[in-house]
Amino acid sequence: MGSRIGAVAGLSAFRHGVAIAAAVLVAVPAGSADASSQPTRPPDLVVRSLSAPPERLLPGAPFTAQDVTLNDGGRKAKESATGYFLANADLRLSVGERAVPELLKDGESAGPAELTVPGDIADGAYSLLACADRHDDVAESDDDNNCRPAPGQVLIDTTPPAVPSLAGHPEDPTAVTHARFEFSSDELEATFACRIDAGEFEACASPFQRSGLSEGEHAFEVKARDAAGNESAPATFAWTIDVTPPPAPVIGDRPAAVTTANEAGFSFTDAEEGVRFECSL
Fold first, then answer.
1. 202 backbone φψ class: left, alpha, beta (φ>0; ψ -120 to 50)
2. Which of 76, 104, 234, 244 has the most CB within a 10 Å radius?
3. Can you give the pTM of this predicted structure?
4. Beta-carbon count within 10 A of 200 CB
């Protein structure tokens, strides 16, 4: 029925001396008296958006993510928490949570969450999940729509790169006081850190050059670092810079100053070991 009928008033009239009773009828829209008694839908917390995580992380590393949590239900939602997890096909590991205040219908809460990778996590690829109402603080209309995955994946990588390959270095020994080194890594995204002698490692690229080196023994080291922060063992090269001329050779055997021989033989030595000799007549 589109309306209900209600008698509003009774009227009396006389027509030709006969009393006539009449009723005035008013149409009332159906359900208008019961509209306020209809139940409203409970709150429903969902993660509307979630930022992408870093591409690579190490166990125990801190990182930050940003989410927007929405109350998509019909009534106010009490205080809750949006939880974060690293997950793969076999497990889901908690990495932190963010407090969410009371949210009215269609209300939103946006904010960053400070998260930490579990220290015992295994190497592999993981998805970052954000799940509204992680502690079931809110009686929701739907508990199956709380979680949202972030775009992309996180690679947990604890394997260091291989030792860099040294393709170029100074001669050993050398009289040159500058040095040039060329090196590479089998990991395409690797960066490098170099040092000479006992200095601090510093970011470097191939070729690495250093001038003004002192006379004496020197050592060069270079190590590779991957995108997750793992460092290789260093590749090393040791060499000696010698800019001091050796003492003059001592001639031993020699021909007489005046001789009729058409051959001459000489012997000579030097106080410095390992020298090479050059002769001329």
1. beta
2. 234
3. 0.62
4. 6
What does pLDDT average to over the chain? 87
* pLDDT, mean of residues 35-54: 87
Q: Are 147 and 131 in contact (CB under 8 A)?
A: yes
Look at the block and give the residue holding tokens 């589109």: 2
Q: In which residue are the tokens 């027509």 written?
A: 15
Question: What is the C-alpha to C-alpha distance for residues 171 and 178, in angstroms, rounded to an integer?
Answer: 11
Quick one: tokens of 31? 């359900």
Under the banding of pLDDT at 50, 70 and 90, the label for residue 275 is confident
In this predicted structure, what is the pLDDT of residue 254? Answer: 81
Check if the beta carbon of residue 57 is closer than 8 Å to that of residue 156.
Answer: yes
157: number of Cβ within 10 Å: 19
63 bridge partner residues: 115
User: Please, which pLDDT band fits residue 34 given cuts at 50, 70 and 90?
Assistant: low
